Amino acid sequence: MGTPVNIIVGSHVWAEDPALTWIDGQVTKINGQQAEVQRSDGKKVVTNLSKLYPKDMEAPAGGVDDMTKLSYLHEPGVLQNLKSRYELNEIYTYTGNILIAINPFQKLPHLYNPHMMQQYKGAPFGELSPHVFAVADVAYRAMVNERKSNSILVSGESGAGKTETTKMLMQYLAFLGGRAATEGRTVEQQVLESNPVLEAFGNAKTVRNNNSSRFGKFVEIQFDKQGRISGAAIRTYLLERSRVCQISDPERNYHCFYLLCAAPKEEIDKYKLENPKSFHYLNQSKCFELVGTSDAQEYLATRRAMDIVGISKTEQEAIFRVVAAILHLGNIDFGKGKEIDSSVPKDEKAKFHLKMAAELLMCDPVALEDALCKRVMITPEEVIKRSLDPLSAVISRDGLAKTIYSRLFDWLVNKINNSIGQDSNSNSLIGVLDIYGFECFKNNSFEQFCINFTNEKLQQHFNQHVFKMEQEEYTKEAIDWSYIEFVDNQDVLDLIEKKPGGIINLLDEACMFPKSTHETFSNKLYQTFKNNKRFVKPKLSRTDFTILHYAGEACNTELSFNAGCSLSKQTSNLMFNKFQVQYQSDQFLDKNKDYVVPEHQDLLGASKCSFVAGLFPPIPEETSKSSKFSSIGSRFKLQLQQLMETLNAMEPHYIRCVKPNNLLKPSVFENANIMQQLRCGGVLEAIRISCAGYPTRRPFFEFINRFGLLAPNVLDGNYDEKVACTKILEKKGLKGFQIGKTKVFLRAGQMAELDARRTEVLTTAAKTLQRRIRTHTARKLFMAVREAAINVQSFCRSRLACKFYETVKRQAAALKIQRNARRHHARTAYSTLRLSILVIQTGLRNMEACNKFRFRRQTKAATIIQARWRCHKASAFYRKLKRGTLIAQCKWRGRLAKRELRKLKMVSFSIFIDIGHVFIVIENL
Ligand SMILES: Nc1ncnc2c1ncn2[C@@H]1O[C@H](COP(=O)(O)OP(=O)(O)OP(=O)(O)O)[C@@H](O)[C@H]1O
After folding, report:
1. Do the annotations mark residue 160 as ligand-binding?
2. From ligand 1's centre to the CA of 429, what distance in Å?
3. How far is CA 830 from the centre of its chain?
4. pLDDT score recorded for residue 473
5. For residue 720, is it within any domain?
6. Looking at the annotation, which residues are catalytic?
7. Residue 443 has what pLDDT?
8. Whether residues 910 and 801 fall in one domain
9. Distance CA 663, CA 673 (A)
10. Which one of 233, 265, 384, 886 has the minimum C-beta count within 10 Å?
């Protein structure tokens, strides 16, 4: 938290660098107050210790989403954090309740799709990544829950992304508070579609932004009791009138001129238009087209948006007719007339454009020429017509063009407001302010003066909210708190707007004096403010003046807070750089005069076109007669006062848009440029205050109402509210809070902690309730279902029993039938079988008997045969035996004989053997 830290040899530090603003390095040597630092780019530098800042080596690589979480809260830490996040396309970062939005200069559709909107809807602030939707959601919830109007103030320099951010805010609010479409278009649709219409007529390409809003805008969205959008009002501030007639290269005039020149052919023919290059109001710059945008398509889109916001076709036709007339008006050149110091349209071309302008404005061309080239002077004696020289005629022509355009723009705003409609019953509003940031160019005129005045006002509002209100509140509540010194810009505001004696007042006085010139006005300023610390007369100029705007002086006091946070003098010094703007006063008087030349008023008031005549309504008698001088400056001052009153009655939320580079390119992070924007936007100071103070406070009653449920027993006793609050906080173990006279003051994060616990208790209670109710309902349902089930079951069972009985009865009957049938069948079969068996038996027995009979006969025959055979065999055997015996006897006798014979030689023996053989053969036979 920016506490003075001992830097020793080896410490990692941030050192100043002219190009990079800050560069990291390591201390290598310390000699008294001088430290030698080895920078990360390889260079070695010697610097004063007081110019070094400690580097948090443990900081997350991707940065932290809330700067108040940084361990070391100082410029380089903040810058590094933003840079690390930007490199990861994390363009949003919180600093307490303030949202810093760095322009990505590239489309990041994933950040804004409907899914994202759904995620942020109702999500507690800080739970999700920082986002513009989160801020809108907080504002919306606060409005719905507390019935208090809220405002979202979007600021930043030109091109920082204010308008885009505002559009996202409006889209998200339309998402939250949208209603079903009736009659074709809804209020939120009309609110959203008012943007392209206003952008076409109020935006232009400048060197700093291709789509720069040249007016301030405060959109007040009204909600009904249900939180639905019920109406809206758009207030615009200070349209840059001079752009209509004067542009510098490479800027463009208002988009609508180029859109009309790219319209379909029939319209171009109708309005006798040509290429933008042929119109004086457009060709002062060589830039006619916007890269990546088609004017023809934009023209059609604008016409569509006009339809949606409720501008009729006839009105649209009249609007573009007037735009075309302005272009023709710009081409009327003047030459010298016949009389001295008189002027006439220079040539045929000029006459053609004069005729066209008159035709389109539906007025008399001669009257138009007169209104441009002559002035009527009313003297007590007579009415004199004075001619204007060519130069004055050109000024008159440009004056007319500017007046017509600014009236047209005011008409559009009014029309949109009327068409969207106002909800007079609505007490809940969300205001979104998109207004130009501080401007400082090479040449700064009345417009820059007014713009910077607005920013001073807004800065004061911011200061009041963040600083003054803190202190006042702490004092009022007798909180133990040391005073913070902060840069109050009341002195700059006094210099500009104080009455009498402020610059605006002196300018009005100068405008009222016919003989005043910018020199006399400047001299008056020098005299009046010679001792003013905020006013400087530049040495080399006799008419310029310089104002030291907010952040022009450093806060030189040691700042310390009892809440445990202290800032060193060096830190606070660094927070405020000089922001001085040198103004050229030469056109201040002309630009401040809020008056329409009567000739112009009469001419266009008498137009045959009701639309044009409506832009120039007759001036009420009293006003024209009254000598009360009206100036742009005072009117703007009044408008700002009203805006501040509105804002003061609302709960503010801040979005600081930052432009990362002047090249309008993605991924380029210019350190010095960004640091300057953070300083001027008071972001660093707000971080300091937010961390040090008590960002959350609640009246006792409200606190008890909200958190009483965290300690219900505390409320049972007879404590007064203050004691009850203390007891609740002590019971929850919170430290560092303070109890004021009527309010509880909580440190950053404590409210979230209490809310988390409250949510816990409520969730538990809700769960118990839900459980009980669910049990009761479920039981009731169960009983009913059970009874019904029993009834159904008994019915079913009786039906089943009946059916079963029926079946059983049928089965029994079937069985009986089957039995009888089977018996019958069996009986019949048995009888048949028995009969058959008897037959078969009889047959068989018969057969057997027959067989037996036959067998006996066969046996007898066989016996006879056998007997005969055996007789035969025995007789054969007997015969054989008898013969064998005879043979054996013969053989024996032969052998004997043989032996006898052998002795008688061999012949008789062989005869004997042969005889034996013959016997054997015979025997075998
Ligand atoms: N969130 C974003 N996402 C993508 N592009 C963006 C975003 N914000 C801004 N831009 C780009 O930056 C350009 C300038 O933004 P924008 O017109 O909102 O700036 P501004 O602060 O309103 O400027 P001025 O004060 O001049 O009107 C836009 O045209 C768009 O291209």
Report:
1. yes
2. 25
3. 101
4. 72
5. yes
6. 158-159, 163, 209, 212-213, 437, 439
7. 85
8. yes
9. 12
10. 265
